[in-house]
Amino acid sequence: MDVHAWPPYRLRITTPRLELRLPDLTWLDELAAVAAAGVHDAARTPFTVPWTDGTPPERARATFQHVLGTVANWRPEEWTLSLAVRCDGRVVGRQDVSATDFAVTREAETGSWLGLAHQGRGIGTEMRAAALHLAFAGLGARAVTSSAMTDNPASLRVSEKLGYAPDGVCTVAVRGAVRTLQRLRLDRASWEAHRTVPVEVHGLDACREFFG
């Protein structure tokens, strides 16, 4: 899709198996269907906001609206790049990179989810590696943060493999219960030391101003 008014739609990140980009309506509809089919066991939630509690159609609509909202609310001072992830010709999940006052802090945050049918294949690590390459190599980040519930070992393993270090914990309320969130931090030196996935970024120069 060639959208002249919004150059981030032309940004693409590729790895040996994956393509990540801001989804057009076709990709976004596929992404909504992945969310509807489920991204975790319904008995628990790995997210601070329990957006997956609804019915499949509600999850699909929430995903569709949320991604469009990230475009509508984008400002160089506060942005979320919500990328659809495609593998083997199918949309399989979502990888976000977000920041506030990035021009000053040079610090971004990652977040993601992957459809249940696509988990356990290393895709989560590969798509996070793509996001980190964009942040560090593409945008010149000094650090990238993330977080995961302490009872979400799969997400914590991905962070560990990519070089994140523990950065304290905090207590959050989810579904009316107390949960512990592990904060994580990755600096440039550790990112460099743990890089294993080849990543290419296309179309970034046309939209650098959007990132502050």
Number of domains: 1
**Number of continuous helical runs:** 6
Unreliable parts:
none
CATH class: Alpha Beta
Number of strands: 9
In the CATH hierarchy, the third-tier topology is known as Aminopeptidase
How would you spell out the order of helices and strands? EEHHEEHEHEHEEHE
What separation lies between the terminal Cα atoms? 24 Å
Helical proportion?
25-40%
What is the CATH superfamily label? Gcn5-related N-acetyltransferase (GNAT)
Binned strand content = 25-35%
Biggest beta-sheet profile:
9 strands, mixed
| Biggest β-sheet: strands ordered side by side in the sheet | 7-8-6-5-4-3-2-1-9
**What is the CATH-assigned architecture?**
3-Layer(aba) Sandwich
Overall average pLDDT: 94
Q: How does this structure look, described?
A:
The chain is an alpha+beta fold and 212 residues long. It has one domain (7-197): Gcn5-related N-acetyltransferase (GNAT) (Aminopeptidase, 3-Layer(aba) Sandwich). 32% of the residues lie in helices and 32% in strands. It is built from six helices and nine strands, in the order E-E-H-H-E-E-H-E-H-E-H-E-E-H-E. The chain has a nine-stranded mixed β-sheet, sandwiched between helices. A hairpin with a 2-residue loop joins strand 7 and strand 8 (177-187). Helix 4 (123-138) crosses helix 5 (153-162). The protein is globular, with a radius of gyration of 16 Å. The model has no long low-confidence stretch (mean pLDDT 94).
